[in-house]
Q: What sequence folds into this?
């Protein structure tokens, strides 16, 4: 096992009828900005419940956060925060709203130029506004970590940042609020959580059996409970298990002491930036071919995954590893998630070359758990994904 440090200060409040506690989690006399996306929080009753719970607070609202949150929209929220002297932010919705709020919290106190440089040049975050989360959609795990991904529409870039100062103070997790989600969003949540685990698990053996089994248990739970929630989002028990699995997939626990990959995400982000494809679906496009291209480096872990998660016992180590990849693809397909770029766009020619050039221009010349994936390799993986 590798050396590691673990820190996670987020208070989790999970389940039904929990929003009555919301006012006790926010310091008194704070001016609150509620940040959300479209109209789902009105349909599921969350908006009204929050307003009632915070009746003794001054609460302003900012809506319109996109499924892939945009820098341009975040900057509009920043103008409101400064004009109204907001003290506390409340992200209400899914991971995109949470990601946007993290960036807004950091950008509001950033005094060293263009806040985009927090993402583009990894400028350190030295201060951030406090914020809480009311989660209504299981997927990203952003409710219990310090990272965020933001898209800049003007340049078609999707970049990430993380800071110890951008953990939520608290997160309410509301599985019942997800009962009205469209099946597509539930499927995206299952795949997103699944791939978060895989990025931290599908590397090479590091003699970290506890982390491996943590990761495998999350994958198994997603395989068992994800299809139930997909078939019936109103299934509270299935949605509860999906939501908690998605949180546990990216709160830092399973990454302790093990190598991590994240090349799939870096390539997938480019597909979202260029084509607007749902984040989870970009991961489903790239991952199988990433594993095939890097098969020799990953086959030990692939075979372990096949045995422990999918129950594959027949054949050689290579046979089990190949079968595990196919099982993964079949699982995505069972959720209605296509796994080829050509399933989403007809204008895919040249995409691989464009992404490879972008990575070269950014100096991203060594991706993956061994930093061995070069831009030329990225080009081949993306081409395999057409």
A:
């Amino acid at each position: 096992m590798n050396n590691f440090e673990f820190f996670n200060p987020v208070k989790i409040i999970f389940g039904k009828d929990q929003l009555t506690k919301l006012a006790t989690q926010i310091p008194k006399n704070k001016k609150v900005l509620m940040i959300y996306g479209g109209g789902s929080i009105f349909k599921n009753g969350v908006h009204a419940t929050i307003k009632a719970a915070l009746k003794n607070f001054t609460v302003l609202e900012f809506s319109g956060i996109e499924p892939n949150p945009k820098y341009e929209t975040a900057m509009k929220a920043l103008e409101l925060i400064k004009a109204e002297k907001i003290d506390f932010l409340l992200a209400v919705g899914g991971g995109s709203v949470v990601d946007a709020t993290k960036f807004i919290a950091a950008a509001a106190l950033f005094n060293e130029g263009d806040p985009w440089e927090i993402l583009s040049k990894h400028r350190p975050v030295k201060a951030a506004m406090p914020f809480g989360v009311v989660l209504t959609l299981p997927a990203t795990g952003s409710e219990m970590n310090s990272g965020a991904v933001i898209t800049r529409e003007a340049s078609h870039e999707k970049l990430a940042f993380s800071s110890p100062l951008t953990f939520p103070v608290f997160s309410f997790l509301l599985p019942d609020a997800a009962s009205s989600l469209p099946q597509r969003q539930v499927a995206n949540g299952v795949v997103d959580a699944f791939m978060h685990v895989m990025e931290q698990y599908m590397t090479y053996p590091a003699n970290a059996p506890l982390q491996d089994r943590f990761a495998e248990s999350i994958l198994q739970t997603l395989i068992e409970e994800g299809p139930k929630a997909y078939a019936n989002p109103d299934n509270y028990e299935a949605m509860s298990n999906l939501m908690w699995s998605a949180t546990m997939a990216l709160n830092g626990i399973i990454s302790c002491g093990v190598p991590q990959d994240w090349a799939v995400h870096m390539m997938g982000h480019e597909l979202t930036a260029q084509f607007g494809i749902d984040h989870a679906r970009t991961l489903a496009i790239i991952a199988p071919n990433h594993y095939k291209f890097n098969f020799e480096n990953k086959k030990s872990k692939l075979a372990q995954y096949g045995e422990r998660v999918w129950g594959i016992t027949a054949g050689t180590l290579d046979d089990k590893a190949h079968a595990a990849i196919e099982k993964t693809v079949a699982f995505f397909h069972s959720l209605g998630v296509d796994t080829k770029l050509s399933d989403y766009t007809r204008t895919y020619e040249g995409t691989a070359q464009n992404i490879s050039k972008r990575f070269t221009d950014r100096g991203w010349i060594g991706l993956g758990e061994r930093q061995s994936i070069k831009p030329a390799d990225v080009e081949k993986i993306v081409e395999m994904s057409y």
